[in-house]
Structures are given as structure tokens and as C-alpha cells.
Amino acid sequence: MERILILDFGSQYTMLIARRIREMNVYCEIVPFNRIPAITPDVKGIILSGSPSSVAAENAPQPDLSGVPAGMPILGICYGAQWLAWSKGGNVANSGTREYGRAILSVKDSNDPLLKDIPAESQVWMSHGDTINSLPADYRVIASTATVGNAAFRVEGKLIWGIQFHAEVHHSEFGKQILRNYVLGICGCAGSWTPASFIESTVASLREQIGSDKVVLGLSGGVDSSVAALLLHKAIGDQLHCIFVDSGLLRKDEFSSVLASYKGMGLNVKGVEASDRFFADLAGLTEPERKRKAIGKDFIEVFNAEAKKIKDVRWLAQGTIYPDVIESSAVPGASATIKSHHNVGGLPKEMELKVVEPLRLLFKDEVRRVGKALGLDPNILGRHPFPGPGLGIRVLGEVTREKVAILQEADAIYIGALKRWNLYDDVWQAATILLPIKSVGVMGDERTYEYTIVLRAVTSVDGMTADWAQLPYDFLAEVSNAIIRDVKGVNRVVYDICSKPPATIEWE
Fold first, then answer.
1. Using alpha carbons only, how large is the chain's radius of gyration in Å?
2. 78 part of the active site
3. Rounded to whole angstroms, how far apart are CA atoms 285 and 150?
4. The 3-state secondary structure of 375-408, one letter per residue
5. Are 10 and 333 contacting, i.e. CB atoms less than 8 angstroms apart?
């Protein structure tokens, strides 16, 4: 499988570069700049990402490219371009003002392969504080802007380029074409990494990896674990044993309906009701991370107890996907941990199982495409993402059965209305949140003092960034009225209009 390596220096745009390349049906992998793997023949090119750092700063990321074979195509983007120039004697310094926003790129060499089919002038997106004042002797300018003379360059006689702007963002009009020129043209990638090819290669790999061993997998009812289960089932059949735990924190009637769907797909699955344990261990907890860890601990212990009932299990399968892996890796300069991931971080020692993660190469939308190719039940395939801790992190503050029951009813009204109004598929994720505060209201002639429900809906591609969904006022009015009328204990409904960033999609 051919691939492009992206060296991550901590830029907010690194994952977007990967997404743009994968849109070309080319697999790419993000690796920390200081942990570059051996460059094998399947690596067709290397991209150096941006960074919030300055190249000459004391603790600035400094990659060691000594292991990169001569002739390997390299593209530096923003910090990556600055480092390519600075490391060979070029002058990179603070520009005095942060160069941020739109700029007009003027092509100086239309014959350069990186700029093939790029107009003489086009809009690009700048985001940097340093600028390349002068290039090394064997570096040649191929494009400029009004304020950035060395906006794009090539090293004479080598397949090395640098661009000071961000080709990967939507605001760079022909940025995708520049990346296509690099990946498909200069690197010579075939663009053959499709859902069908992924399934074929992954199934073959799973069969070789697992052999005749038994595998246990915890199903959640979501897309990731379901696709992982179908891939494993295709590879090893009834050697796969699935466990679906009812924590009491699922959506209304979700445990029974999803369990029926799994059995309809031919999966070997066991449902386990364990809500008493979860609610008991959540009693008195209000801090989000403590709640997450308590829920995660109970999942593991319940799952572990059930797994031990299966004789000779050797593997634990998980629905870990690529953003989980990237966000949980320690890359200097990268963003801090926002919240703990339930799929990343190791297993209890007593489980003594080897881990298999068939989806760890994929972004969320890629998981859905693979699931569609596998024939996953459309009702599960099209489901919005749902957090591992379930409604336990949508009940803010202490979690009780009473509060979860209120939230389940409100959530059922909201999600049902989204489907009736044909808005469900336009939204990437929708959620109801129960606030730990009460407010005064009036119902009939009586004063009420009851809970507030927050409605949340966002549009996104993979959840790394998201915009709040601009749902119709009439829809919001209908949902609000229905919740206040039909859900006892609620007298106020509000709508969250924050994007990510600065907010997160979940409230906890």
C-alpha cells in the first residue's frame, strides 16, 4: 500500500492535510517529527507540516531527515517550508506583523510541476508570524505574494518544494490542485486506496494476524465498533465474540433495538444489563473526568467478567479510529489533551489479551464508507456519533436514574423530530444536555422550578472542527414545546450556538 508520510510539528492544520490527501484515494500517515519511522519502499513522499513554533527558537522542532533516501519527494508547508530554508542557511525571521488571512499568489514559474494547472494569480491562505527573507543559493522562487516574496520555492535539481501558505485549507482556491500535483504527479501515487481495497487488505491481514484464535469485542451501538465487528466477522466468522453492555446511559430503548439489529446481521453477540453498577459508582461524582473514568472502569470490569466466560480468548478488538490515535499521541507543540479517549490508553493487566484495531487507520467518514461497502444496517451506519460514556456526560453534574430518564425522553423527542423533518442526515451530531440548574417557569397558573435542557446540533466532516447547525426556527419551536409539554421535570429549552473551536461538541 503506497503512502505519504506527514511529519507533525504541532499545527492545527496537520490533520486537514491528511484528509485532503485521502480524498485522492491515497493513504497517508501522520507521525511525530521526532519519531520518524524507517522509510520503506511504499513511502512515496514526505510532507513537513506547519507549527506554532519559530524555526530558530531554542525548543523549536528540528527533524532528523538523515534516514530519508536521496530523491524522495519532500514538500514543506508553512513551518515546514521555513525549516527547509533555515536548515540550509536561509534567513527566516519574525515578519513584524502576523501574516494571516487571504493573499493573492502570483506564479513565477508556470512550468514547475507543483504549480501545474494553477492560474497566474489565485487566492491562498496565510497563517504565520515568521517569514522567509532569503533563500539558500540553490533554492529558486516559483511563486510570490505582495508581501511574501518567497511564498513558494523549489530546490534546484531535487524533488524538494516549500510553500509558505496553507494549500490544505478551503480558502486556498487551488490548494487541492497543488496537493494533487505533489501527491499524484510528483510522488506518482496511483490513488487506489478505496473502501473495497481497504476491506480486502484488512480482512487478509486480520486472518493472518489472528489465525484460529478467538476475539472478544465490546459493541457500543455506534458506527465504529459495528464496522470493526463486521470486518472481523468477515475475516474470522464465529471466532468473534461480541459483548454489548447496557450501562443505563444509552438512549431510550437503544439497548433492545440495537441488540436486535446486531443479531440480524449474523453477529455472535451477548447483551449484558449492568445499569445498577454504573449508577452506584456515579453517585456523588460531578467532575467530568472523574465521571468518564468511573464509567470507563465499570465498562472494563463488566466486559472483563463476561470475556472470562469465553474459553481461550486471545484478542481484544477495539473500534479505535485515527483521530483517537493522533489526539492521544504526545507531539511537542500539539494541542493538549481535551478529554480522555475510552479506546486509547491501555488495558488492565489482568486481561492479558493482545489488541487488534482494524479501524485505526481511518477517519470517521472513511469508517462510514467502509461500513456501507460491508452492508452495515443503514440505521446504524447513519447514526450520529455517540460518546463512549453515553448520557453520563450529557447529564451535567451528578448522574442519577431520574435525570437520565428525563434526558432520554427529551432526547427521543429531539432525535425523532430531526428525522421527521428530514434534518437528521444534514446534522453530523445532535445531542440533548441536562443542566444541573433549575429555573423558574409558569405552567398554567402554577409556578414551576425545574430543569433546563440544552439542544446541540453541529455540522462537521470528522468532528475535529464543527459549526453549529442553523436549524429552522419552526423546528426548534416544535421541539421546545414538545419537550416542555411532555417531559416532566423540564420547563426551559435553549439552543447551543457555539462552534468547535472554541467550544467542544460535548459539554463534558
1. 26
2. yes
3. 55
4. CCCHHHHCCCCCCCCHHHHCECCCCCHHHHHHHH
5. yes
Catalytic one among 2, 99, 168, 254? 168
User: Residue 185's closest CA among 367, 53, 44?
Assistant: 44
**Active-site option among 28, 78, 189, 242:** 78
Q: Show Cβ contacts of residue 205 under 8 Å, excluding neighbours closer than 6 positions.
A: none
- What secondary structure letter does DSSP report for 135? -
CATH 3.40.50.880 domain position(s) in the chain: 3-186
pLDDT digits (tens, 9 = 90+) for 61-90: 999 999 999 999 999 999 999 999 999 999
Place of cell 451477548: 270
Q: Which residues of 314-331 are buried (b: 16+ CB within 10 A; e: fewer)?
A: bbbbbbbbbbbbbbeeeb
Domain 195-381, CATH number (from 3.40.50.620, 3.20.20.70, 3.90.1300.10, 3.10.120.10): 3.40.50.620
State the catalytic residue, choosing from 128, 166, 233, 341.
166
Is 166 labeled as catalytic in the residue annotation?
Answer: yes
284 burial (CB, 10 Å; 0-12 / 13-18 / 19+) is: exposed
Q: Which fold has domain 394-495?
A: GMP Synthetase; Chain A, domain 3 (3.30.300)
Which grid cell is 242?
Answer: 461480541
Residues of the chain with CATH 3.40.50.620: 195-381
One-letter amino acid for residue 53 of the chain: S
- b/e 214-251 (16+ beta carbons within 10 angstroms → b): bbbbbbbbbbbbbbbbbbbbbbbeebbbbbbbbbbbbb
Type of residue at 242: C
What CATH code is assigned to 3-186? Answer: 3.40.50.880
* Chain region(s) in the chain for CATH 3.30.300.10: 394-495
Q: Is 398 in the active site?
A: no
pLDDT (tens digit, 0 to 9) for every residue of the chain, 508 residues total? 799 999 999 887 888 899 899 999 999 989 899 889 999 999 999 999 988 888 888 888 999 999 999 999 999 999 999 999 999 999 998 876 566 788 999 999 999 999 999 999 999 988 877 889 999 999 999 999 988 999 999 999 999 999 999 999 888 999 999 999 999 999 999 999 999 999 999 999 999 999 999 999 998 888 999 999 999 999 999 999 999 999 999 999 999 988 888 888 889 999 999 999 999 999 999 999 999 999 999 988 998 899 989 998 999 999 988 877 766 554 544 433 434 444 444 445 556 788 999 998 888 889 999 999 999 988 888 889 888 899 999 999 999 999 999 999 999 999 999 999 999 999 999 999 999 999 998 877 788 899 999 999 999 876 777 899 999 999 999 999 999 999 999 999 999 999 998 888 999 9
